[in-house]
Amino acid sequence: MSNQSDLEDSISDDEFYLAQDEQSNCWQEEVGGETVMVLAHQYQSPYPPLEEAVKAILSSRDPIYKKTTDKSGREVHAVTALSYFAWRMPQFIALYSPKIRHSPHIQLFFDTVKKLDMWLETFKVPGAWSLVEGKKVAERLNEMVDEIRREAATVAFKKSVTRRQENSTKKFQSSRQYVNRIFAWRNRLEVIRVDLEYRTDKEEPSLAQARSDLAHFMENRRHNRLFDDIGGYIWSLEYGGRGRGYHFHVIFFFDGSKVQKDTYIARKIGEYWVDVVTKGRGAYYNCNGNKKRYQRLNRLGIGRIESDDEQKRHNLDHVVQYLTKKDYCLMPEFDGGRVFGKGKSPRINTLGVGRPRKDRSTAENLHLDQPHLSASANANAGSPWRIPPTAVAG
What we know:
- This protein is α+β, with helices and mostly antiparallel strands and 394 residues long.
- Helices cover 37% and strands 17% of the residues.
- It is built from ten helices and eleven strands.
- Strands 5, 6, 7, 8, 9 and 10 form a six-stranded antiparallel beta sheet that branches. A three-stranded antiparallel beta sheet has the order 3-4-11, covered by helices on one side. A two-stranded antiparallel sheet has the order 1-2.
- The N and C termini lie far apart (64 Å).
């Protein structure tokens, strides 16, 4: 058995989630009769940096720009540790969609932009006049920061953050228990992770269409021998913004004594989604086809996993936790539907005789039309950007 030191992470959780994001933002499509990899407009999901930036504002007392004078007495706007926020404002504002309800910190940002009517502002030159008469861009940005901090101090906002944290913890704990029950069903599993996408050259599906496609996918499993030896699954619905749209992250758990060649199975699942469920509108990413990346990170938690392999079980926890954290947008209260779910637990044959029960849960077990909280834990605060202590003339 491995000791605790053997289970120490070689990289941080944030680095691991970033590695997953990098994979999740590329997917396979058929172009001109050939399978190609498609790279999203934002290779890394743009929502986590926005949430991180808002948290950086809340953990600091700095303004975006500090008004001061240079040696000649001329007014200048000195940059602070938060000035990177101004440079990324156009990118952050472009993420807004009225059909999406975001996580608390991201929603706070959009609500503040709306309240101060900053949609059409330019942000590159702090000393330039803003669209509000008598105010410069730096002043408007500093007002935005002050408003974000005021709203974040309210009881309502604090409750929304706490609720998100609590429900993320509940989701992860219940998912971990679910995985443990599947390992009690079979001590050797073939774990497959596939991202079910939509083609970028087709019209973006509605939320209702995406939910319908997932229900269709799960219902049709009963008639597909590919899923004969499945023990369970976990799915998460995400909205990736413009250029990515709605998509699903899914983990499948198969009987490892009967199912091998995980990369092949993942590919067949993806093709089933594309050809049968979406009739050519879909695309997919085969995470098992890139296991070497996880091996280099010492985070391989997919593929063949034995119940007594503590390191891979530990890594699998991180894969599951990744799904419970990805709710930067598309909060469930938006339409009353679920954004996260699991299949039925397989029946454990305690007598040791007879055939194992296969997971034949249908679309009804997904409860796609039932309310379900799925707020996730917050990303770590702090900014990866470093700003030199210089001043910008204005």
